[in-house]
Specification:
By secondary structure, the chain is mostly helical. The protein contains three helices and no strands. This is BED-type domain-containing protein.
Length: 91
């Protein structure tokens, strides 16, 4: 969790295992709670949209996995092939 997000949870008094700030005004507490709720809603909507168009976290993982499996299946078995596909660019 990032520092700003952690600070907002501290000020809003919403985070598990974190002591709520006793010096923050009620207005600031409510503003932080609202900002955290809006962020969570936006993140959920973004992830749903990305998954719907095939770019979400689950879809990306499945796509990378299928490319890797396809690449492994196409090797000749001699052990001298090069890595291709998405993972080959990161090594």
């Amino acid at each position: 969790m990032g520092g700003v997000n952690r600070l907002k949870h501290h000020l809003a008094g919403t985070h598990h295992g974190m002591k709520p700030c006793s010096k923050v005004s009620e207005d600031a507490r409510l503003e932080c709670k609202e900002a955290l709720a809006n962020f969570k809603d936006q993140k959920t909507k973004r992830n749903e949209l990305l998954q719907e168009i095939g770019m979400g976290p689950t879809s990306m993982h499945e796509s990378a996995l299928s490319k890797t499996i396809g690449t492994l299946g196409s090797e000749s078995g001699s052990g001298s092939g090069s890595v291709s596909g998405e993972w080959g660019t990161y090594s």
